[in-house]
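Page 42, continued from yesterday. The earlier attempt failed because a stray header line got pasted into the input along with the sequence. Redoing it now with the clean sequence only.
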Amino acid sequence: MKLPRLLLPLFGLLAAVATATPAYDFYICANINRNYVIGSKIVTTNGIFQRTDEGGWRHFGYNDTSITAVAFDPRDRNVIYTTALNGLWRSLDGGATWRICNGWDMTEGREVAVDPNAPDHVYVAFTDGIAVSTDRAQTLVRREHGLPERGKFTQTIKVDHTRAGRVLAGCEVGIFLTEDGAQNWRRVHATTDTVNDLQQSPHDPKVWVAATQSAGALISRDGGLTWTPFSGVPTERALYNVTFDVTNPDRLAIGSWAHGVLTTEDGGKTWTSRNAGLPENPRVWRVGVDPAGRLYASVFQETLFHSDDFGRTWHPNDLAGSLVNYFFTLPKAAN
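This time it went through. Structure tokens are written below.
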């Protein structure tokens, strides 16, 4: 299969995994604030962390417990966007300085995405809808035509890497699609509760998966137009996120507060609980996979755990007392 041009950098990452210096940068948005309460003298570090070549974590950017997601301009790694409680933030100098991009009427940012085929276009999910910028977040405007009057809470927003202006959003009442840069939205799948996560396959861009609050996990094989539930995935409690293994198209993992870590190694035909080695009854906030195939699980009030055999055995990573909100991978920045 010929890969879309803008997916080639991601697949190029895999060829470099075996080298001494990995050809990718791996980021998380995390809060490290165990035992912190308002007024406490405990100093905490929160926000964006980059994994170092030695395997540790380097914090950069501003210190904020409410950062939910991060995105980068593919043309310039110094241009960084984050969503947080007070909206959308942007840095033009690699995280040294920041400015807020929204007004008082846009707060509680949930996720931000940059269109790789039109990098000036930035899409932001808010708890009361969606906003878009076409000028690198100099201005930010609502674009919600086609979203319901009630049920616009948007937890996740993802740009289709194959075509400019094609975006999927997970809202309170379903999955919505735009194919014209958010000028118009239409619902492609209805739910009774929030869609918590959407992911596009790095192996086949027509394949998308979703994690939901009460409808289990879903898969689309036609670019997000139609959706089918995965059999064998629980529906009675919330699933917080889902992730692909970029080294193996048959591997996916789901993170859940109630169910811990669920994995599949046959493309979703069967699912297995992979909680052995994690704390008892693990409340998993998020899972992620780096381009080397290492699986991570952020366990509430514990730490970040990692597994090199896709959940069969777990080991505590750094960042004790952390809660990870987001995992993000980019081709390695040039020196």
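Notes: Residues 8-15 form the longest helix (8 residues).
Reminder to self: strip header lines before submitting.
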